[in-house]
Structure formats: structure tokens, C-alpha cells
Design goal:
This protein has 419 residues and is of the alpha/beta class. It is built from 13 helices and 24 strands. Strand 9, helix 6 and strand 10 form a beta-alpha-beta unit.
Length: 419
């Protein structure tokens, strides 16, 4: 099998969530091009509509008329976050700064995911939070007058950081977030582009309050997490090369491409530019002789969503690949450490599961078996790459779950294969 052609993957999911939120809180009209129309982003749009933002349907070119920092209104019903942890956590921050109670709910999978690490910070700022049970959804949050905060995050988390910054923004107070490692920077970049004083020093981000934020037109770059699957297929191919156009290239999101290069694939940026404060590049990938690598804890924040894909690549890389410092994978849409390890074993790949990662020994044996995705889009797409190889006999139990982040994934995967 060979790969070929040029592909533009859908808009970045992380940026799409934040673009909708920031445009809704701005004063005036913001035009957004290339937003991702997926189940998760629709969840954020739905929640924003319930609190008074008149959002049009998600399209390739849309206009959002913001209501301002104080313009949200109390919802008439519970706010359904669907399967989107980003919606639940970022909107918790927005709602913590608003002077009305809100109830957040989600599907069964999201309701099992932890919210306490976000709500602890919001409670320290003065918001009131009540859980129905445990530390997941449903929860009720009552915001209003918040206090300034200096918060030391236990782990690098763009969602925790984003929730704190958005709460401070809406409430009109200062915030400082310190992280042990640098997490994704989309929230602070987007706020700075809209006129919010943001200072970044090492692992610390500071926000100075403002009475309003400006509307801003922007184009959402291609999602590097989505582009990663096609880069992986190109790395595993027998020949050819693939160009991925307009991919977000912020260094906090491109750890997978650096790992892929270390594994032996040919990875190069053809050109790069800035779009709405975000780095963007065309990325060319061609196959190479793959080899095992070590993914150490400092590598993890910049490639957390792509680690199941790294594990799948490792199944075809001679030697022993190790992933460590990734305990966060256990509280994603599924326990991705346990699920990836179990699925690789079912395909005949030797795997050792660890509390914070795994080790995978590459094999040349044909990969055959059934993959159980647990409804997790990242698992479906990662194992879908292995299933696309000509010597594989892999069945994916739930192909439709990719709609959470990439509804057209299977068609695009087929389009870049050249037989």
C-alpha cells in the first residue's frame, strides 16, 4: 500500500470550542471560518445557546454576535454537555463567573469523568459547586462575585487552566495559574488576541481583568490530533508521501509529529504561518524504517490524545516502545491504557500495562481480531489506521463513534490510500 495526495483535516477541536466561547463573550460580531462541526463542538454550541447566545448552525463560515462578559442569562433547563469533557470544564469556568445557578449534565461516559480538579479551583475563587454523587456530572454550579486566585495545578491541564482564566475573565478578577509543565495554550492565545492582558512566564500564566473583550475574525486551523492518524498511515505505508494542509502547529500540540520523526518516519513542514495568533503549517509525511522509542513524562502533555496511536504504531516498530507519565489516559472517554493494551493483545501484540502507561513490543505477525472501542473515538481511529494496512484483518466494533471529533474520518482515510 502507498499513500499520496494532499488532505486538509477538519478544524481543530480544542480551538473550535474556545472560538465559540470567546466569540460569545465578546462585544460585536465575530466571523469564524473552518470550525469543526462535530458532536463535541455542537455540545458547546448547545450550552451557549441555553445561556442566551444566538448561535447559528455550525458551518464552514459563520458569524457569532457576542453578548458581552455580563450578557449571559440563567438557563431554563439543565445544560447537556453530551460526551464533551471540554464543554463541561470550560463552561464551568464561564458559569462560575456568572451570577446565576446552572446544572451541567452529560452522557454516561462523561458522567464518569472527574470534574473535581476543575471545581476545586472554582470553589477557591468563591463559586458554589454541588455534585449529585462522586466527582462527576451531574453538578450544579452557582457563580457570581469571585475572588482573584493564584492556583498551583497538580498536573498540566489546559482545561483546568482554561476554566480558571474564563471564570476570572467573566467575573472581572485577576488570575494566575502555575503548572508543572506547559499545557495547550489556546485559551490564553485567543484571549490575548482579543485584547485581554495575558502574561506568560515559563509555566505561569497571568490574566489581568478587563471590562470587555473585542470581537475577532479567525480561521480555525486543521486539528493536529486528527492529522496525526493520516501521518501515522503514511509512516506505515510501503511508499509515497502525504501532505497535510493547514495543520495547527503550536508546540504544545505537536508532540506526536516529533515522536513520529523519532520513530523513523520522514516528517517536514513545507511552510508555516500565523492565523489568529495560532501557528499553522503544511506537514509532509513519508514512510521510513520504524523503530521503538521511549515516551517520557515530559513528552506527554503535547501528545496526550495521540498516545493510543503511538501504541498502535509501536505494534509495527521493531523493539520495545515505552509510554510513561500518562495516567491521565485512564480518565478519558475510556480507560485508554487498559483498553489499548487489551485490544493490542487481542491482535497478537505483546503489551505490558502499567499504572501510568505501557510497553509495546513490535511484531511482524499479521494483525487480526476484533477491537472493542468502548465508544471512544480516539481508539476507533487509532486502530482504524492499523486496520487500513493490507496485511491486517481487524474489525472495529463501533466505527460510528468517530463522529465525536471527525465525522468524515473513514472516507478521508480511504482517500489517501493509493493501491
Amino acid at each position: 500500500m502507498r499513500v499520496g495526495g494532499r488532505l486538509r483535516v477538519p478544524g481543530d477541536k480544542s480551538i473550535s470550542h474556545r472560538a465559540l466561547i470567546c466569540a460569545s463573550l465578546a462585544e460585536g460580531a465575530s466571523r469564524i471560518a473552518g470550525i469543526l462541526d462535530s458532536a463535541d463542538v455542537r455540545s458547546t454550541a448547545g450550552v451557549l445557546r441555553e445561556v442566551g447566545v444566538h448561535l447559528p448552525p455550525l458551518t464552514g463560515a459563520m458569524e457569532v454576535r457576542g453578548v458581552g462578559l455580563r450578557g449571559l442569562r440563567a438557563p431554563a433547563r439543565a445544560l447537556d454537555c453530551g460526551n464533551s469533557g471540554t464543554t463541561a470544564r470550560l463552561m464551568s469556568g464561564v458559569l462560575a463567573g456568572s451570577s446565576f445557578p446552572s446544572r451541567l449534565i452529560g452522557d454516561q461516559s462523561l458522567s464518569r469523568r472527574p470534574m473535581r480538579r476543575v471545581t476545586r479551583a472554582l470553589e477557591a475563587m468563591g463559586a458554589r459547586v454541588a455534585f449529585d454523587h462522586g466527582d462527576g456530572l451531574p453538578l450544579e454550579i452557582t457563580g457570581g462575585t469571585l475572588r482573584p486566585i493564584v492556583w498551583d495545578s497538580e498536573a498540566a491541564s489546559a482545561q483546568v487552566k482554561g476554566a480558571i482564566l474564563l471564570a476570572a475573565l467573566v467575573a472581572g478578577v485577576a488570575a494566575e495559574v502555575r503548572e508543572p509543565a506547559r499545557s495547550r495554550t489556546h485559551t490564553e492565545r485567543m484571549l490575548a488576541a482579543r485584547g485581554v492582558p495575558i502574561a506568560v512566564e515559563g509555566m505561569t500564566v497571568r490574566l489581568t481583568p478587563v471590562p470587555r473583550i473585542a470581537a475577532l475574525d479567525m480561521a480555525v486551523p486543521g486539528d493536529p490530533s486528527s492529522a496525526a492518524y493520516f501521518a501515522a498511515l503514511a509512516a506505515l505505508a510501503g511508499g509515497g508521501e502525504l501532505t497535510l494542509e493547514g495543520v495547527g502547529a503550536d508546540e504544545t500540540r505537536t508532540g506526536f509529529f516529533r515522536a513520529l520523526s523519532r520513530m523513523g518516519a520522514q516528517v517536514a513542514a513545507e511552510r508555516s504561518w500565523l492565523e489568529g495568533g495560532e501557528a499553522v503549517a503544511d506537514v509532509r509525511v513519508a514512510p521510513g524504517t520504524l523503530r521503538a522509542i521511549e515516551v517520557a513524562p515530559p513528552d506527554v502533555p503535547s501528545m496526550i490524545d495521540e498516545l493510543p496511536l503511538v501504541a498502535c504504531l509501536a505494534a509495527r516498530a521493531p523493539g520495545r516502545t515505552t509510554i510513561a507519565g500518562a495516567a491521565e489516559l485512564r480518565v478519558k472517554e475510556s480507560d485508554r491504557i487498559a483498553a489499548v493494551a487489551a485490544n493490542l493483545r487481542a491482535l497478537g501484540v505483546p503489551v505490558e500495562e502499567r499504572p501510568d502507561g505501557m510497553s509495546i513490543t513490535g511484531t511482524t505477525h499479521p494483525l487480526r481480531g476484533r477491537v472493542v472501542t468502548h465508544g471512544d473515538h480516539r481508539l476507533a481511529m487509532a486502530f482504524g489506521v492499523l486496520a487500513a494496512l493490507p496485511d491486517s484483518g481487524i474489525e472495529i466494533d463501533d466505527r460510528d463513534c468517530v463522529a465525536v471529533s471527525y465525522p468524515g474520518f473513514w472516507n478521508d482515510l480511504a482517500s489517501v490510500r493509493v493501491h
